[in-house]
Amino acid sequence: MSDRAGRLWQSRRGARPYHVTMSRTHHAGRPPTMADVAARAGVSHQTVSRVLNDFPSIRSETRDRVLAAITELGYRRNDAARRLASARSGLLGVVASALPQFGPASILVGLETAAAQEGYRLSSVNVVDVTEVRFTAAVEQLLEQAIEALVLLVPHRPILHVAHALDLAIPVIVVEGDLTMTPLSAGVDNLQGARVATRHLLNLGHETVVHVAGPAEWLESGARAEGWRRELEASGREIPAIHWGGDWSARSGYLIGKSLAHADTTAVFAANDQMALGIMRALAEAGRRVPEDTSVVGFDDLPEAQYFTPPLTTVRQPFDELATRVMQLIQRSLAGEAEPRVELVQTSLVIRSSTAPPS
Q1: Distances (CA, A) of 228 to 7, 116, 169, 207, 357
Q2: Using an 8 Å Cβ cutoff, are 159 and 119 in contact?
Q3: Which CATH number, 3.40.50.2300, 3.40.50.10860, 3.40.50.300, 2.40.420.20, labels domain 190-317?
Q4: Which CATH fold topology does 3-83 show?
Q5: Tell me, what's the pLDDT at 85?
Q6: What is the pLDDT of residues 188-202, one digit of tens each?
Q7: Using omega within 30 degrees of 0 as the cis cutoff, is the peptide bond preceding 17 cis?
Q8: How many Å apart are CA 238 and CA 180, to the nearest integer?
Q9: Cα–Cα dist 3/17, whole Å
Q10: What percent of the chain has pLDDT over 70?
Q11: How many angstroms from the chain centroid is the CA of residue 64?
C-alpha cells in the first residue's frame, strides 16, 4: 500500500493503517496467508481480519501480537490493500456447497443477476467437502479479496454454528441455512411448501401421505419433513414412518421407491423432483401406475419436471425473489442497519398429471 493510499484508508476508517514488509515469505516459495498470520499470533483468522479492518473491540495486546506476526511473516493483502484505499470494492463473497444440486446452483445464478443489477460482482468459493476446516479456509480466501459482504450458501446443519460464530467487520448473510428468520438470513419457506404439497394430496382424498426425505444434515430436508408432519397432524391423519436415506438423487429415490412399490401406498411426497423421478421409475417397474395407483409430488419444479412421464406435480421455489432479498439484506446492512430481516420466500404448487384422487 502506498503512503497516500494508507493515509486515505486511515482517513476513511478513522483509525491507523497497518504496515507490512515484504522482507520475508512463509513456507519457501509461498506467500504467507491470513491463516499463517493467525497461527503465528495464536489467534483465529477472524481476529486477524478484525485487526486488519481496525475493529474497535480488539484488545491492544492481541492487536500488537497480530501486527507483529504480519511484520515477521511479510504478509500483505495483495489487491485487497489497494481496494481498501477506495470507498468500496464492489465485490461480494459467496461460500457455497453442493453446487451440482439444482437449488444451490439456481440461488447462485439468481444472486449473480441481482448483484449485477446493483453494481456488484461476485467472487465465489465452492466447498466440496463441507468440514469446518474447509469452510473456514473458504471464508479466509474471500476475505483476502476485500469483499464488502459475505454470503454463506452452505445449508448443512453441522456447519451452521460455525457460520453464526463468524465475527467479521463486514455483513455476513446466511442463505438457506437458517430458516427461522433470524437477522441477516434469507431462505425459502420450505415448511410452508411441504404443507401445501401434503394438503394437495389429502384434498384429493388420500387417507395419508408417505414422505421420502432428503439428507438429514440439510436444514431444508428437516423443514420439509416437519411441514409434512404438521399438515398430517392438523388433518388428524396417520403419520407414516418417514423414509430417510435420500441424497437428492434419482437413484436414491428409485431405491426407496422399490420398497414403496409393494406397499399399500396411494400418495408420496418426495423432498425433491429428482427423487420423485426415481420413485416413479420404481413404481412403474412394479406395475403401479402414476397417478392411478399412486400419486407423486416433488419439490423444486425442475425445468424437466413438466416432461416427466407423467408430468410431475411439484412445489416451485422462486429463486430470483430469494436472491433479491439477499441483496436487500446486504444493502440495508451496508447502509448501517444493525440487524435487518426479511420474510421467508413463499412457494407455490404447480399441479400436473402425477396426482389424482385414489382409485
Answers
A1: 58, 37, 39, 14, 19
A2: no
A3: 3.40.50.2300
A4: 434 Repressor (Amino-terminal Domain) (1.10.260)
A5: 35
A6: 999 999 999 999 999
A7: no
A8: 27
A9: 10
A10: 86
A11: 36
Check: CB of residue 31 under 8 Å from CB of residue 125: no
What is the grid cell recorded at 315?
A: 412445489
Alpha-carbon dihedral of residues 125, 131, 134, 136, nearest 10 degrees? Answer: 90
> Stretch 147-167: mean pLDDT, rounded?
85
Q: Would you say residue 266 has pLDDT above 70?
A: yes
Query: What are the backbone angles phi and psi of residue 116, rounded to the nearest 5°?
Result: -60, -35
Grid cell at residue 322: 430469494
Superfamily of domain 91-188+319-346 in the CATH hierarchy: Response regulator (3.40.50.2300)
Q: Pick from 152, 171, 190, 176: which is nearest to 328 by CA?
A: 171
Residues 64, 331: Cα–Cα separation, whole Å = 33
**E strand or H helix that includes residue 348:** strand 348-350
Instruction: Express each pLDDT in 286-329 by its tens digit.
Output: 999 999 999 999 999 999 999 999 999 999 999 999 999 999 99
Confidence of residue 30 (pLDDT cuts 50, 70, 90): low
Residue 238 reports pLDDT greater than 50: yes
Give, to the nearest 10 degrees, the angle between helix 45-52 and helix 34-41.
100
Domain with CATH 1.10.260.40 in the chain: 3-83
* Segment 204-207 long-range contacts (CB within 8 Å, at least 24 positions apart): 204/267, 204/295, 204/355, 204/356, 204/357, 204/358, 205/357, 205/358, 206/266, 206/267, 206/295, 206/357, 206/358, 207/237, 207/238, 207/266, 207/358
Counting residues of the chain whose pLDDT is more than 90, the rounded percentage is 58
Is residue 265 within 8 Å of 241, Cβ to Cβ?
no
User: What is the C-alpha separation between 342 and 168, in angstroms, rounded?
Assistant: 21
> Where do you find CATH 3.40.50.2300 in the chain?
91-188+319-346, 190-317
Q: How far apart are CA 295 and CA 265, in angstroms?
A: 9
Q: For residue range 85-124, what is the model confidence (pLDDT) as tens digits?
A: 344 789 999 999 888 889 999 999 999 999 999 999 999 9
